[in-house]
Structure formats: structure tokens, C-alpha cells
Amino acid sequence: MGVHWCTFVIVLGLLLVLESGLFVNGGLTSSFTRKFEKTVDMPLDSDVFEEPPGYNAPQQVHITQGDHVGKAVIVSWVTMEEPGSSTVVYWSENDKNNKNIAKGIVTTYIFYKYISGFIHHCNISDLEYDTKYYYEVGIGHTSRIFWFTTPPEVGPDSPYTFGLIGDLGQSFDSNATLTHYEMNPTQGKTVLFVGDISYADNYPDHDNTRWDSWGRFAERSTAYQPWIWTAGNHEIDFAPEIGETEPFKPYTHRFQVPFEASQSTSPFWYSIKRASAYIIVLSSYSAYGKYTPQYEWLEKELPKVDRSETPWLIVMTHSPLYNSYIYHYMEGESMRVMFEPWFVKYKVDVVFSGHVHAYERSERISNVDYDIVNGKCNPVKDDSAPIYITIGDGGNLEGLAFNMTEPQPMYSAFREASYGHAIFDIKNRTHAYHSWHRNQDGGCSGNLIFLVRIMALPKLQSWRLNCEESWQFVVARVISHCA
Ligand SMILES: [Fe+2]
């Protein structure tokens, strides 16, 4: 019997299980093995760090969403020699003769002995949906032209493809991850970045020139598609030993987010709508206990989500709430205690996190019944709960998280310590496809999930078909439930 027949028989058997409606617990630790090469940062004279030619040429160009609905873009860049111009000239591909001008701001900061370049931020607004725009920065001396495409209008059946990258850094592996993302045929249109950007704080005195080099390295993607930023612990840059006691100083000067558009009072937590997705960004490193600003904002924010408009509800945090690796084990526990009941109540689809330098996907589980005396402190399958996905495997110099808790807990569906990226590909209000791509595959998928949801008002009825591929076998399952 050939391999294909074996596969067919296995799949047929699994399909029979699916038809029976049974849930098969299938936590899987990947057996994939890779070369254990040390992860090292690219040297500063690497080509990916080259400064653009010309006096005071704009560099480190990056864009992010600039409003709540996707009709604005924040353009940021750095000029090194002098402030130059903070103006952005932009025009639609459909109307090349109608050039618009937006005026931005410029800022600088000092971090110990480092003095930053001139950091520009400019919000260009009132854009048309689903339109390609060109933009030009650095008009004063040496200008550069880039482009982006706005998302489709917010609506339940607006398809959209997100890339997922976390803990990227600037090592040779970081470069491989970004290259694989760029080459992925699914073509992510916006990156949901789950925190830990440059790892400059791993250098003596938090050498901020590594923030600049990271900006030049990532520009080939960040200038052309929005990256939605989440603050990680490597953005804190708290260094009282050298007199730097203002947390997040480099991060907040270099990266702007549209937090005020979602009535947030802080750039560390905010929300956006993009196509059919409602995305909530949370801060693992800001207070989130009861009565804190972040807690009170999220308490008001979740009821605002209209699932008939944005059926896909995504939450981003840096520290994962469920993690079965030994590295950073239970660091997300206090946020889980505070926010998990809301994630279940409001039926968050998926929580994306980073921090752990590996990939992991949870089952759809919750652990919200515990009330200190009843003893109900174990995660249980919960069809109203999110799937938790850790994607902190961007490739930073700290290396992979190989050590895992054993045995693999029931809440962990799949885990593998490889560098890579992921895609969340929303087809419409009922179908989305999630795939994780390890770098060593040459871009092939290491883990696939197909999410299917059937909306039936007033109840939300969900069917989810999971397909996991791991080299020699396929595990497939259907979960059905009413909520
Ligand atoms: Fe981290």
C-alpha cells in the first residue's frame, strides 16, 4: 500500500471521527529537528543596515494605521543630519495629478550618551478604502517615494490577510523570518506585531544605534504595509543604572499608534478596525489591575465591538496567557486572571502573543471558574474561549525556547521551537485560515488551522475545522457548539 493510500485511510478514519462529533484531544509537540546554530545579530556593516544615499535622506520609514477604521496612515521616518521637512506628499494611484500635502511633527530624545536623529511622524487621513497610494518624504533635500494600499471598507465580509511576527530583533534569523514573510505567496497586507522589536537593550547602555539599525533593516516591509505595534518588555528600556528611568522612552519617540481614536489614554493599549477584524492591543507591561486605566478602558471597549460589523475579534498581548514552555512560564498569569473572563464573555476569536521564542497554539480552553474555595483551577475546553497563539519566534539574538513543560498539557494543541512567522487570512465572516511557517521549511507551512464559523442570530453557532500538518501525518477535527 503506497503512502497516498495510507494517508487516505488515515484521513478517512479521522473524518469518520469528525462525523461522530467527538472531540479528539491531540496535543502535539513537533518532532521537527533543526541545526542548533547560535543566533547572532547581523554586524552593523551588513547591507540590510545601509543608510539611503544622499544628504539627510529619510531612513527607518515605517507606517501604521492612523485612525480607528483604516482611512488614515501614520508615516514615520528619521533624518540624521538636520530636521528637514516633516511634510508628506501623497497621491492616489487613481489620481496621480492630485497631490496632497500633510504636515507632521518632529521629535528627538537623548538616552544616556546617545542623541537620536530627527524623528518625524505625519498622519495622513481621509484616504479612500482599498486604494493604492504613493507617498514622498524628505522633500527638503533628498526625497524618497514609497507606497501602501488602504484596507477595504470595514464590514463583515471584507477579506483581509494579516501577517504575524513577534520578537524579531536583528539577527541573521530575523532577516530570514522577514524574507520568508515577504515571500509567502499568501501575501500578508498588514503585520500584527506582538512586541519586542529591536533588542537594543541587550547591548551595553542599551545602545540606541541598534534602534536605528533595526529601523533600516525592517524598512523594506514597514514602509510599504502597516505594522500594528504591541509593546514588549524589550521596549521598556528602563535603565536607572545609567540614569534612564523613563520607561518606553525610545519606543514612544519612534513609534506612534492611533490610541486616542479608540478613547484610550495611553499608546500602550488601543484598538483598531481593519476590514472584518476588530483588533485590541493590550500592554503586558502597564498596570491592568482593577481600577487601572487599562482595565477600565478594556471594560468599556469590549462591549463596543459589533460582531455584525467586525465578526473577527483579535487581541494582541506580548506575554502569552497560556504558555507551556519553561521560558517565561506563567508570566502572563496575572493578566489571564484579570482579563480571561472578559475574553470568554465576549467570545474573542484568537489572542496573539509573543515573548516566548517559539510557536504554540492552544486548544479553545478557559480557566475562569476558580473562586478560591471551589478548587476549579484547571483549564477546561470552552467553545466560547479564544485560541491562544504564541508567535514569539521572529529570530532575535536571545535564541529559541527549546525547553518545554512535560508532559504537554491538554490546553496546548501544538508547539514547536523554530523561527518563523504566521498568517491570519480572513476570507469572510465565517471563514479564516491560520498558518504558521517555520523558516527552515523554505516557507512551507508547519502548522495549519482552518476556522469556520456559522453565524446564526441571536445565538452564535460555530463550527471549526482544524487541520494540522506535520510532515508525515494529518490530524483533522471538527468541533461544533452553540453559545
Ligand atoms: Fe519579550
From TrEMBL:
Q: Which residues form the signal peptide?
A: 1-21
Reactions catalysed, as given in the entry = a phosphate monoester + H2O = an alcohol + phosphate
Instruction: Give cofactor(s), names only.
Output: Zn(2+); Fe cation; Cu(2+); Mn(2+)
Residue ranges annotated for the Purple acid phosphatase C-terminal domain, each copy included = 385-442
Which positions are tagged coiled coil? Answer: none
InterPro entries attached to this UniProt entry: Calcineurin-like_PHP, Metallo-depent_PP-like, MPP_PAP, PAPs-like, PAPs_C, PAPs_N, Purple_acid_Pase-like_N
Keywords of the record: Glycoprotein, Hydrolase, Iron, Metal-binding, Signal, Zinc
Enumerate the Pfam families for this protein: Metallophos, Metallophos_C, Pur_ac_phosph_N
Q: Its Enzyme Commission number?
A: 3.1.3.2
**Single Gene Ontology MF annotation:** acid phosphatase activity
The UniProt record lists the Purple acid phosphatase N-terminal domain at 58-150
Q: Which residues form the Calcineurin-like phosphoesterase domain?
A: 161-359
Family, per the entry? Belongs to the metallophosphoesterase superfamily. Purple acid phosphatase family.
Name this protein carries in UniProt: Purple acid phosphatase
- Species in which this protein is naturally found: Centaurea solstitialis (yellow star-thistle)
